[in-house]
Amino acid sequence: MLQNSNSLNATFAALADPTRRAILARLATGEASVTELAAPFTMSQPAISRHLKVLERARLITRGRDAQWRPARIQAEPLREVADWVAQYRQFWDSQFDRLDEYLHTIQTEEKKHVRKRK
Amino acid sequence: MLQNSNSLNATFAALADPTRRAILARLATGEASVTELAAPFTMSQPAISRHLKVLERARLITRGRDAQWRPARIQAEPLREVADWVAQYRQFWDSQFDRLDEYLHTIQTEEKKHVRKRK
DNA sequence: CATGTATATAACTGATAGGCTATATAACTG
DNA sequence: CAGTTATATAGCCTATCAGTTATATACATG
Prior knowledge:
Two copies of one chain form a homodimer. By secondary structure, the first copy, chain A, is mainly alpha-helical. Chain A has helices at 5-15, 18-27, 34-38, 45-57, 77-87, 98-118, and strands at 61-63, 72-74. In chain A, strands 1-2 form a two-stranded antiparallel ribbon. Chains A and B meet through helix 1, helix 2, helix 5 and helix 6 of A and helix 1, helix 2, helix 5 and helix 6 of B. The first copy, chain A, binds a DNA duplex through helix 4.
């Protein structure tokens, strides 16, 4: 279950920054150069380059080469891993699972109360 | 689209740590005390308390009170936000969307090439 | 080959993360 | 109320993050 631990660490850390999420959103419409990606932001070009490096290390993007441009492309795999990870918890908000959720929670709470009192 | 930016920042940052993800996995089976949550780990109790505080600030857990115990319970909402966010990118790995994905990518790439050459 | 454009890297800085130990607080229990 | 248990907080340390400016590198082109 935790074999993707390192991968998820890097992916979630990369996604924790709004600039990087905005870059991904932009790349969802197609590849783009660093300058194009930097345009919507007030921060410097090196800052964007570093954000891209973080995304690249998390494998959320790959970089190409087109003359002096280094176009970035979004990569699906880490996003799929996030989707798979969070799907584990779907029961907690999906009404389809409410009954099971409630049941599991009830028996768990009862057990804990007993355990604690015994100690 | 970015109205949940702050919330997602905290949520993704919280999820970037494997200890905190393990705590959430444990809480998916029902509420638990700090000591119970700390048991599987080699780190100190204060370290676990701090991890719980991070999860709490991200609203991924809430804390209760049961005598000297402070049971933690998982909260669905931020996880649902993550699921919603990542669902935006479902097209990139779901084969159902491959054709659209390919089409979008092709026209995007063509456009970019023209723009770059003109400059 | 000199210049312009696109991007990366280096060096610095201030803030935050995540661990520790020691200590404080809160509640139960004899 | 003294001792025990559960948890939180404080203070410290080291590492990493996210930004900056200055500079280097890579490529295109007149």
